[in-house]
Amino acid sequence: MLARLIILVLLTSCASGFVVKVDSDEAFSAAKYKDFKIFKPDPFRVESDEEENPIRINRIARALSLSLVQLGLDQNDQSPLKVSFSVKEKERYKQINSSHFFYGYRNDPFSYRFYANDFPPINYLSVKFFDEDLDKVVWYANMRINTSSLDDQDLANEIISQILSKYPGSS
Question: Is 13 exposed, middle or buried (0-12, 13-18, 19+ CB in 10 A)?
């Protein structure tokens, strides 16, 4: 319990902290859904920038199931609400200015070796709620994450909990 509290304090103390971006369809009503089914990505058929570690995928699925049940939804394989997720990596756009281009980092001609670390990729965890009856995604959320935080079930639970805290009707 103490370790979980320390992790939560560390994660929430960052200035960029848990920034969850949410979007929903105009036809979406959270009260309509009483159950859900989870669709995990296939670790053997993914794009090159998607998470392919099956153990991390299982951790995220477990965390999603737990959080959705805590929101009052039941897991049901016949549900029209499909919940899927993905972990993707996005490249940062490099901005070239004259000092970087000609003289390197901070006008030091020998600092070219730091360029590889100037723009590390950014990882995002996204969660999608797809309504089979409407045949479209009705709720979407994503959050910037450190993929190594998915190596621990408690941290994965916290991340999913933060994402689903933006779900309508959650406290």
Answer: exposed
Of the options 3.30.160.670, 1.20.1420.30, 3.60.10.10, 3.20.20.20, the CATH number for the domain spanning 21-90+100-164: 3.30.160.670
Separation in Å, CA 1 to CA 4, 7, 13, 159, 164: 5, 10, 18, 17, 21
Tell me which residue of 68, 70, 171 sits closest to 127, measured CA to CA: 68
CB 139 within 8 A of CB 45: no
Q: Where are the strands (E) in the chain, listed by range?
A: 20-24, 35-39, 74-75, 81-90, 122-131, 136-145
Residue 108 dihedral angles phi and psi, to the nearest 5°: -100, 115
pTM equals 0.71
Write out pLDDT tens, residues 54-87.
Answer: 899 999 999 999 999 999 999 999 999 999 998 8
Q: Is 164 exposed, middle or buried (0-12, 13-18, 19+ CB in 10 A)?
A: buried
CB 130 within 8 A of CB 152: no
Euclidean distance between CA atoms 49 and 167, whole angstroms: 26
Question: Which residues have CB under 8 Å from 9's CB, separation 6+?
Answer: none
